[in-house]
Amino acid sequence: MKSICPHNDCTGCALCAFVCPKACIAMRPGALGHLYPHIDASVCIDCGACVRACPSAASAGSAVSSGSAASSGSAVFSPSVQSAVPRTAFAAWANDNAEYLSSASGGAASVLSRLVLSDGGVVYGSTAGSDGTGSFSVRHIRVDSEDDLWRLKGSKYIHSSIAGILFQLRDDVRCGKPVLFTGMPCQAAAVRRIFPDEPENLMIADLVCHGVPSESFFLEYLRKNLKISPSSVSSVTFRDGDEFRMTVKGQDGKVLYTHKPLSGLRTEDLYYNLFMDGFTYRDSCYRCPYAGMRRVSDMTIGDFWGLDKGVAAPGHGVSLILPVTDKGKRMAGRLACMMTLVPRPVGEAEAGNDQLRSPRHRSIRIRLFRSLEKIFGPSVYYPLVFDRMLRRRLKHNKGGHKEGHQ
Ligand SMILES: Cc1cc2nc3c(=O)[nH]c(=O)nc-3n(C[C@H](O)[C@H](O)[C@H](O)COP(=O)(O)OP(=O)(O)OC[C@H]3O[C@@H](n4cnc5c(N)ncnc54)[C@H](O)[C@@H]3O)c2cc1C
Ligand code: SF4
Ligand code: SF4
Ligand code: SF4
User: Fold this and answer.
1) CA 392 to CA 405: how far, in whole Å?
2) Average model confidence (pLDDT) for the chain?
3) Where in the chain is the domain with CATH 3.30.70.3270?
4) Closest listed residue to residue 39, CA positions, set 78, 62, 10
5) CA-based angle 215:221:222, to the nearest 5?
6) How far apart are alpha carbons 247 and 243 in whole angstroms?
7) Distance of CA 66 to CAs 73, 74, 187, Å?
8) How many angstroms is it from 238 CA to the middle of ligand 3?
9) Residues having CB within 6 Å of any atom of ligand 1
10) Which residues line ligand 4 (CB under 6 A)?
11) What is the pLDDT of residue 371?
């Protein structure tokens, strides 16, 4: 097998590696450190399982059972990833103040996780921190106790690998446990393909997503720009409610680095500026089929940007909840015991959130950055956006504006 799907469409979900019967697919860094499958041709038997499983392959679709996946039973994939357009939307925030203030926005993902754990279930989500071998990494983990839920809290503006959890997730679902998977829409699509019959005990929640930088780009930024050794880092956070600010903490809990909340000027932090302006995403993010109102999960969660000012919402952040399937709708009903839920028109959510309409445009500046960065490093961003920064400075001096995802 030479390639599994068009390079620009590969989301790095690692589903191909999960199904390969010869375990001959390794995820290796490509442009800007993003991970892509590399096939060991000397071991590959050309069975085609990877292509049939891949959510981004044009010819994906036939059922497949194979591989290391087959060693403890077969993995079967559906012809396509089911999707639907939500008909209801909620603005929501957690009633418990500690829960609310420690979450990325309104705490919808955390409350949902608590509900599934209280049913005796397990939750899969993203964590950023030491991986147990002394290295800092961003990856999905399995949580089976409320005491560990803090590890999933907050938005990590780095690609989170799901490669390490897929086998255990499949086994948990098969043994009938209530299972919640939270992740990016492309990851939700990958999980959806493992379970084409949509088992009742599996709940998939995806985030509204405008793209991700790679873990290795972030680690390089820590080392070279911030002069921080990744092994000395215990945690990284990117949000403080409505404020966009990166804070890096050391093993002793001390703050190793932070910056002023983003004001829109693009001078506060280079990594964050590049992320916000969409310069460092995966190639697939600029062609993302999941950036729209058709959703592949049971429930979509995001920030309720553009919420009508007449809604008396607290200031730290407001979750957007879009229940998609019947299961998602039932779960949204249950959230009401721990969250304030205000029904809103779906159009209001769509209008306020670019990523519910289309993927990020890959502008000429972004294209230039991706070529020049290889020679000059990420700081080449500044000359490329100099005129924009000047305009922002003038606008800011006239009254300024707060940074958002748009
Ligand atoms: C890279 C990125 C881009 C985003 N872009 C948008 C956007 O354009 N518009 C918008 O409305 N919202 C966007 N969000 C979602 C938003 O920032 C919040 O994460 C979301 O509203 C959840 O908030 P919460 O209070 O419910 O989360 P919390 O209760 O704090 O829980 C955080 C949840 O997010 C998951 N998570 C965090 N980081 C990642 C990651 N890197 N990969 C996979 N899962 C992760 C965790 O598993 C956990 O379930 C983005 C999030 C990320 C990580
Ligand atoms: S064709 Fe089969 S053996 Fe080869 S990489 Fe794909 S899944 Fe693995
Ligand atoms: S999209 Fe996922 S399954 Fe397809 S090639 Fe990329 S990593 Fe593999
Ligand atoms: S923008 Fe699309 S392809 Fe990129 S991480 Fe988000 S869901 Fe995946």
Assistant:
1) 16
2) 90
3) 7-70
4) 10
5) 90
6) 12
7) 9, 6, 20
8) 27
9) 103-110, 125-126, 152-158, 160, 182-184, 207-210, 212, 301-303, 319-320, 353, 355, 405
10) 11, 184-186, 209, 211-212, 282, 284-285, 288, 290-291
11) 96
Q: What 3-state class would DSSP assign to 21? A: coil
Dist. CA 212 → ligand 4 center (Å): 7
Say what the pLDDT of residue 266 is: 75
Better pLDDT: 364 or 392: 364
Q: For position 400, what pLDDT does the model report?
A: 54
Asked if 387 contacts 313 with a C-beta cutoff of 8 angstroms, the reply is: no
The SS3 assignment for 122 reads strand
* 404 vs 202, more confident: 202
Question: pTM of the prediction?
Answer: 0.93
User: Phi and psi for 212 in degrees, rounded to 5?
Assistant: -135, 140
Fold of 7-70: Alpha-Beta Plaits (3.30.70)
Of 303, 327, 322, nearest in space to 86 by CA: 322
103: helix, strand or coil: coil
